[in-house]
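Sample 1 of the test manifest.
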Amino acid sequence: MTATAEKTTSNGARSRLSTNWVDGFLMLIRVAAVLVIATGLVAFVYQSVTGTGGLTGPAFRDLLVAGLAQGAMYGLLALGYSMVYGVLGFINFAHGEVFMSGAVVSFFIANALFNAGWWTDAFLLSLAIVLFSAMLVSTVVAVLIERIAYRPLRSAPRLIPLITSIGVSFFLQNAFFGLFGPAVKNYPPAPAWLTARRSFLGFQIEGTKALVIVVAAVSSVALYFFITRTRTGKAMRAVAEDKEIAALMGINVDRTIVTTFAVGGAMAGVAGLAWAILFRGVSFITGFIPGIKAFTAAVVGGIGNLGGAIGGGVFLGLAESVAPLVVLEPLGVVGVSQLKDAVAFSVLVLVLVFRPQGLFGERLSAEDRV
Amino acid sequence: MTVDWRKARNWGFYAGASLVFIAAIGMVEAFDRRPLITPGVSLGLASLLWVPPLFAFIATRRQQLEGFETGKAGVSEVGAGALVGLLSGSMLWLFTALVDATFQTDFNIRDIFPKLGPAMVRLLTFEQGLGTGALIIVLGTVVLGALGAGLHLLPGPLRSGVVQGILWVFAIALTQAIVDDIFDNDTTEFIANALYAPGNGLKIPAAIVIFIVAGGLAWWAATRDTPSIRERLNRMDPADQRRTTMIALVITVVVFAVLPRFLGGILNELLANVGLFILMALGLNIVIGLAGILDLGYVAFFAVGAYGTAVLTSPGSPAFSPELPWWLALPVVILMATAAGLLVGTPVIRMRGDYLAIVTLGFGEIVRLLFLSDWLSANFGGSQGIRQIPGIEWFTGEIRGVDPDRIFYMVAIFVLVAIYVSWRLQYSRVGRAWMAMREDETVAEAMGINTVTAKLLAFIIGAILASFGGAIFAAKVGSVFPNSFELLVSIIILVVVIVGGMGNIPGVMLGAVLLIGVLGGPTQPGLLQEFQEFKLLIYGVLLVVVMLVKPEGLLPSRHRSRELHHEEMSQDAWLTAGVGAQEEEAVAAT
């Protein structure tokens, strides 16, 4: 009896020791991260004040606007990750490819509209058509993926659907490579009145970036009303809360999950249009990096939390656009623009080390909360 | 119960969509240059041929219900199979007709789908024009579908004979290059000549002979109901068991020791690549298969091994260049890999499994981006990489990539080490802790397993095996570039482990041989160089299909499949043991 008790304590002590060791290491990472960021910021401020480097006011404001526009796009994409995680409890790795499919297919519509002269004559109408087609394609792809690849795995251990979604993502990338070729497809340029810079509250904002921010804001407000005010939205929230009880309340769980994928896909379609406006070039690998960044945004905002997804997207967009120049460059790192993606991934690592539940708190379903 | 016609209709559409997809990505056209059986079947045609029978077979499969007699298959099955064929063939023809119709208009379909063109239409209509072509396509798919479904009518052994016969014919036709290479000397050359028309695929008589021999053997084996090798081994007493295993092991080693002597350069290169991936897959198997940690940044450790070796051995290393011999660099590389494993492992150890996957993926990308960046290019050469990496010193001289057979021996030594390590670890205290952790982390912790140490150990051992791979890779290629270490490598190793069978050493090795050997690695060509263009697509499809159909892989580990099919198994146990259990309860009650 005593021997067992002793053994337990010694085991407990040992595991506490190693736990402490890991905690210490994590603390070290935290301290190091804070130190690096603080040193960088101080150096930045110093250099800006003394005029030996840093950024001018307008350049800094440009960075903020660019980060905000890109962040809005990440936020739209993050919604899909967040909704699916909230309902099914797994990372839909292929969501980046859903976004890519909308952007790539719509390119051909945009090109046709351009050749027909509509793109220049009635830009907003053509943009609406392209937006609609991107949303349609992305929605169809998302629903098909759910039907073919994820539904049979509803009750599998949680890593199984994740691995499957990696396969789906790989397949979609290479299918688009095979079908549409490897070339980067450039959307026709936006008309001059849109690309022009206008001053707004002291910011010089490019029209395209403003357009992306407005489109993202409008669609997230629409999504908000859809989720909170409609019966379907209510059903989605119920299924996210607890699938079994939702089913007992007479909600068609399968159909609601399909709706979730469809809505996520539609938002990815909007993000696809945002990408087209901001960067113009799309190809079969377009979805991969933005997909991972959007997942990062979803985690940063707190997974399952839709407001958080948008917030996380904006946070990530700003961090990615500002941090290389404000933190890394003053530290003497050269070629910081190459490290943009590395910064985004570091944000992911740091957020998960500092605050795994995200900045705004996560919302998980009953079974995942345990 | 009659045939489920709705199911047949659905599968008909799936088959049609698959056929159209295969045609639209240009597989038919690209593979048409490669004849399989002369005259008649090219690889391009074969890439379509398998679809209708397989889908018809699946569509007409009866659901097996426990404890119920499955109804006998009849003519209606063949009808349903023909329906699958009819639908799929019609869809393919419709697609061809649509593509053809665009040629009459101004609209150039190649602007959207670059692979579609007149050549594809000619192929799909067998150069007979749309009308006759339609007849051939639809008739062909109907017959194939009916044949596929008709397999259900055959008794089990005969069915497996027919299927295996067909598979062998295609396998031997596909491996023409390797068979030619093996028999490439005066005494045995006649075998290759009897099988193949030079550069033109299998001869028809040879195909028939192979079909009859292989199919007959399979049929004979299936009717005799012989116990499997594993069963027979289990029945022996322990001393015999050990001796048999040893003999088998020795034979395997001897075969692999002399094999490179008989193979040409290309095949030895292939063997060396397969070995390299076996090595890394065994490492990943410890992380994913045993410890249940989904590490998507595995390539980072491969990169650390390769870059570590490059910096330590190459005179071309930009900043720090001690020019150590490979064998002295190796211990340092092991230390580096351990450090990298700790560095990546510690922050992620407490995360949920799925978060961990994405974070490790992020780490993998960070490592590549750092090696690529201008910031560290003074140390690692940036996108220029590091060149002039010397080979591996051996008693008989330096081993380099130019003599693949010696690289193969080198790889084989490390593979043996990896097998030994994995095998000893599997049932050791640590290995059992890993498996307990994989099944249920909370319970494992409650049983007194220190999950933090166990996970870190898995990470580190995996990292060291990957760094071996990297070290050999650097010496073999002679240069390292950041672009050799893309996420793709992680994913391909993941597919190898999962298709082969997570947690099972022979399974993982089989996975590497089948996938890397046949399809090829991320940059390395495989046996079927024709598939080069579509390799990654096939990897993606394989990953999805395996996860949906057989998540435990081709050669599953017993523990792992028990976990994945837990519910079915407990149901089976309940059904078979139900009566007995009730009796026991009754006994206990009295």
